[in-house]
Amino acid sequence: MKFTVSQSSLAKALLVVAKGMATNSTLPYLSGIYIKADEGTLEFQTANLTISIRHRIAANVEESGETVVSGKVLTSIVKTLPDAAVTFATDAGGRVVEISCSKSHFRLNTLDAQDFPEFPVYALDRSIELPSALLSEMVDKVYKVTSRDTSRPILQGVLLSVDQNTIRLVATDSYRLAVCDSNAETSSSDEAFVTIVPGNTFHDVLSSPSMTEQILVGTTDSQVVFVFGNTTYVSRKIEGNFPNYRQLLPSTCNTSIKLDVPEFGGALKRVSVIASSNPSVRLDADTGGHLVRLSASSPDQGDSSEIIDADIEGADMSIALNFHYVLDCVNAVSGTDELALELQGPMQPAIFKSYGKINYLYLLMPVRM
What we know:
The protein folds into three domains: 2-115, DNA Polymerase III, Chain A, domain 2 (Roll), CATH 3.10.150.10; 126-245, DNA Polymerase III, subunit A, domain 2 (DNA Polymerase III, Chain A, domain 2, Roll); 249-359, DNA Polymerase III, Chain A, domain 2 (Roll). It is α+β, with helices and mostly antiparallel strands. It starts with a strand and ends in a 5-residue tail after the last strand. α3 packs antiparallel against α4 and α5 (261-271) packs antiparallel against α6. 17% of the residues lie in helices and 44% in strands.
């Protein structure tokens, strides 16, 4: 095998497939990168126990062939090379690959390409094309809400549904719930497209440097497949029924508060400095004074408070919330001016709402005051 490719193209390709490498695997192939050179095209593949990534770029191929090299070592090498032509050539036995770029020269041991896991073969049952920029913005708003608890894999997923050009994403970790929806031109049919995608996988896919304007999302019995440009991303599908989140959403509220996002976010960050050991921040809504008082206390550090102006309707209300979770909500709606907070009672869920190109709802369970 022998080929030449630009350092910039090679570095970008390695960045695309890097997410598919296993980090702590005892199997060397799962932390390696498969490279195949054939007829002016380089194909890169990575695979771990849950995802497989394939990406293709153009190159000057003099001799066809395939090999597997350490992904970590190769990526580290390529990042340090100058932006010049990089030449790969394997020896007669294919056990060593020589990499040359300008005045730099490397010899890396390789693995047998025949032993690398075969890229998954799939036949899509359903598929849909979606605008990637909008989908990426929506995923950023919800994927952090997915659970880290491996004992409940269904909560590690994001529910994706597309119906009549309405895209909706839902995520929950049982302490909080995030829902966002938006309207866009899609390739949706009369029947709604619904699937559950692992949250971190969804984010990694939409963050790919090879992303195009449109992304195809498809499903099989056991897989979720993403195709965009010259990249194919296959992930194991999360099986099971997503929680019925609609039953958690109340139809009315006793207190409605309109908050200025920058002002509320700044006050929350200042007050929560004192809440390092106790992550709860108390909100007291004063309807008559049109004020919200934020306060926190710590037996070791002391206490803090700040008052902000707010447009309040309904009864006076007090509630305590985990400030880490509230900050996640504030960060998700950054760029908007107003955030609505609806309260039913001190021990009932707090519901934050934001409206715009993307409508956002964030339900958060309270903590004891």
